[in-house]
Amino acid sequence: MLFAGCDWSDRWLDVAVLDRSGAVLGETRIVYADNPDPVARYREFLVPLGRRWRATVTGIEDVHILFARSLAAAGMEVVHVDPTRAARHRAALGTPKTDRADARLIASMTLAGQGRPLVANSPAAEALRVVAHAHRAALVRIWPAAVSAWPASVGGLRSAQARAVLAAAPGPRAAARLTRKHLAALLAAVGRNRAVEDEAERLRMIFCRPVMLLDPRVEAAEALRIEHLVTVLDQAVRRADKLEQELDDRYAAHPFHWLVSRVPGIGPVLGAYLLAEVGDRPVERFDSGRSLTAYAGVAPATWASGQTARVAFRRASSTHLRSTLHAMAFSMTGHSPGAQRYYRQRRAAGDAHATALRKLGRKVVLCLYYRMASGEPYDDAVAFGYNPAAADAPALLRHKPLGEVDIGRARDMLAAPGVTVTATARAFGVSRQTIYRHVLGRPRNR
User: Fold this and answer.
1) Which of 151, 190, 396, 415 is the most exposed, having the fewest neighbouring CB atoms within 10 Å of its CB?
2) DSSP class of 439
3) What is the dihedral of CA 422, 426, 428, 433, to 10 degrees?
4) In whole angstroms, what is the distance from residue 246 CA to residue 355 CA?
5) With DSSP H G I counted as helix, E B as strand and the rest as coil, what are the percentages for the chain, rounded to 5?
6) Dist CA 209 CA 197 (whole Å)
7) In degrees rounded to 5, what are phi and psi of residue 64?
8) pLDDT for 261-309, tens place per residue?
9) Tens of pLDDT along 125-180?
10) Which of 76, 23, 11 is nearest to 47 (CA)?
11) Considering the entire predicted model, what is its pTM?
């Protein structure tokens, strides 16, 4: 049986192969430009080294690169070697930092059993992972510019209203010439049917404000670029919508959809992101819940030597899963009584906001791991250890931005002639949505 170490880079792969005794049987460098199929070239390199070359265990630091995934798909055994642990071994041995030396080090760690076996997801779970990452990129990278007229709360530039108005008036001079009637027609054409005249008047007031202007000829050229960007934005939004629908379909077909969908505050997007990273075989991929929390970056990394001990943030982890758990924990604090109480306890104990969310995410992902292993449904009381029938059971607390006295004062202000909702919101330092919801008792018309 052979044990190989692979040190990868953007242009080539360095490979070292050891036998059971640790002797080096062969070394090579596979250059991508010279080998259109690095997996085939790697297998050709292994053939003369041993009769059981097909049973070679290949260690690599990043199992998500195309070479590692293709090698696993070809039936070869691939294990993940922790880069942080490899760096510590290199420093302890005094080994120079070269590609060739790194390949030998990874091979020796693979021989010593210090690699984690790579358990491939099913094709459906892997497809969900690809779609989830594409959906995330489509939403984040549609257009970096922000338009103050359409805040993120109403969809920003992705909203149909914003794209319709920008297509009709791609420059400040053209937007200033739009009348309220024209704006209302644009808004109605894209499906708005509530407070159309009010929204048209709000946009007209924004577009009529004095702004820094360029020469008309330069502005016309810039308008052409904006028209092109709006066209690209339309295509990106349609692509994102299609990806979101595909994401929902694949999320619903995942074997653990029944479990994750029952977690309070976890919608289809966050649930799909979570299952995309965990996969449909978590018990086989991760030896324990602790291993999963380390992979997610929510378990602390402890360094101890003699009487010195340090606990630090774990950076060698899946950034996608770590950010997903952060968003999940933040959402659960507003929907789960147990999560809200746990978060408040951590904050009262002195933890920072991000630290409390990280500990909450660790608690949630541990619960989900053991529920996936046992096949039992998610129970908020079991996850956070409380009896819902007890008198001291946590209840979901809703924070009111305005007290009863402030609500009464705000109503008195609005009763005066000429006082607007915007002026009242500024007087109390809250949003207009807060005035509509808590003072007037109705949602704001959009």
Assistant:
1) 415
2) I
3) 40
4) 34
5) 55, 10, 35
6) 19
7) -95, -5
8) 999 989 888 899 899 888 888 888 888 888 888 888 888 877 777 777 7
9) 777 667 666 655 554 444 333 356 776 666 666 778 888 887 887 777 777 788 88
10) 76
11) 0.64
